[in-house]
Task: inverse folding
């Protein structure tokens, strides 16, 4: 397989969202939707084939990044990872997503790749995906029949499979506003800095005084999708988080993850370090 | 396959060319326009040899960019940096500091450096190394490239002080 040449396809370049949705209602499952192209084109240079590729590049008004204290953060379908990294509001209010964006791939990829594209790739190693799962929120999907919102918890159905129907465009990601005692963090393990994660983790904690009121913990590279860790979350809720409590997560997490051997790590290694990474991520979120 | 006409502004010059849907920006630069200063390395976004600047300051990978989606955009390649026969300070810095060995990664490194300095005019070593991620060099071991970026920052500061 040559990495030099892209296969043949018909390129669809809608000028507005309505035209794009019309095209999808007609060609639906034969269309690969492309925003930055950093996933779709790499996959097409390998073995992925699609009769149509639809570029969103010509559609205006999809690269927004809006923050308001009442409504939270709104991220458009063409908003790049670099825009996230450069945003003071994201750095201040959604630390986990900002940290994921700064560690994400390379500067060139960050200039093209989109946050929503990372969600749609539905890879368990997605860094922004892991942070978004911990932060919570919804993906807004639009078709000619209208809009619907899917909670991020229900968005990934399996490896490389999302709740998006073939006739829908994921137009926006919405993250809820943080509360007074909300902190979040993202960490990952890689061999070199620009590698895909061998393991990543993210946490969002709502702390009242010293007591953890809610906890959302996410981990990637330990199953077919990025996943929550509900048993570990339950241990934190209602308690003051200290070192002794965190140490108990090392055992609990073992029943929540199912890592595999692949070229980036062994399952054994991932199991050995999952608790450590989770503890460090939680501590970092508490310090946020 | 269906072709379409696009207009690119490359190094300040407006160029119109017919492109196929599956042509990357790198292929169009090298094959349609004969501008071979931008290099093909891995083709999959790992090595950075194909780095060009979008809108003057934003490094992107031309091997992972569809040319047809770039209609009307401004692209800068390594050949567009020199002015009136004078090397750009970033190019001069790579010469001065011996940041070049075989030279294959150099056009990408130089474009990336312009991007780093546009955002961080006086970068620390750590900022330089973080910024250079995504550009692979198999010769130098990077130390001389890092000093080239530092030197480039100095030269550009001198230049803007003189202006």
Result:
């Amino acid at each position: 397989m040559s990495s030099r040449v892209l296969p043949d396809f018909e390129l669809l370049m809608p000028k507005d969202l309505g035209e794009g949705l019309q095209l999808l209602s007609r060609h639906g499952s034969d269309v690969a939707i492309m925003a930055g192209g950093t996933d779709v084109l790499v996959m097409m240079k390998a073995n992925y084939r699609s009769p149509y590729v639809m570029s969103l590049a010509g559609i205006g008004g999809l690269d927004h990044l809006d923050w308001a204290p009442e409504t939270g953060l709104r991220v458009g379908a063409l908003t790049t990872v670099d825009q996230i990294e450069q945003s003071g509001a994201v750095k201040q209010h959604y630390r986990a997503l900002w940290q994921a964006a700064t560690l994400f791939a390379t500067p060139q990829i960050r200039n093209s790749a989109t946050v929503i594209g990372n969600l749609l790739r539905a890879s368990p190693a997605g860094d922004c995906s892991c942070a978004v799962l911990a932060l919570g929120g919804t993906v807004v999907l639009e078709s000619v029949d209208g809009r619907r919102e899917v909670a991020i918890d229900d968005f990934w159905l399996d490896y490389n499979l999302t709740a998006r129907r073939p006739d829908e465009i994921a137009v926006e990601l919405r993250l809820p506003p943080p509360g007074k005692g909300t902190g979040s963090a993202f960490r990952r393990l890689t061999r070199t800095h620009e590698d895909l994660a061998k393991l990543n983790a993210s946490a969002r904690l709502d702390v009242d005084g010293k007591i953890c009121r809610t906890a959302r913990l996410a981990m990637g590279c330990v199953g077919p999708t990025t996943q929550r860790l509900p048993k570990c979350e339950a241990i934190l809720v209602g308690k003051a988080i200290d070192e002794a409590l965190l140490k108990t997560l090392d055992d609990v997490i073992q029943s929540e993850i199912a890592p595999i051997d692949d070229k980036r790590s062994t399952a054994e290694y991932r199991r050995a370090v999952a608790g450590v990474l989770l503890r460090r991520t939680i501590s970092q979120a508490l310090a946020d | 396959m269906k072709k379409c006409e696009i207009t690119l502004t490359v190094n300040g010059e407006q160029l119109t060319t017919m492109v196929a849907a599956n042509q990357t920006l790198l292929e169009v630069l090298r094959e349609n326009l004969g501008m071979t200063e931008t290099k093909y390395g891995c083709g999959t976004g790992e090595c950075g040899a194909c780095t060009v600047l979008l809108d003057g300051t934003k490094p992107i990978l031309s091997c992972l960019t569809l040319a047809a989606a770039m209609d009307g955009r401004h692209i800068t390649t390594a050949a567009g940096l020199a002015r009136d026969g004078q090397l750009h300070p970033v190019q001069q810095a790579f010469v001065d500091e011996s940041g070049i060995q075989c030279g294959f990664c150099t056009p990408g490194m130089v474009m990336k450096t312009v991007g780093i300095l546009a955002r961080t005019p006086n970068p620390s070593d750590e900022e330089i190394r973080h910024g250079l991620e995504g550009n692979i060099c198999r010769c130098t071991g990077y130390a001389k490239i890092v000093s080239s970026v530092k030197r480039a920052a100095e030269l550009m500061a001198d230049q803007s002080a003189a202006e």
Summary: The two ends of chain B are 51 Å apart (CA to CA).
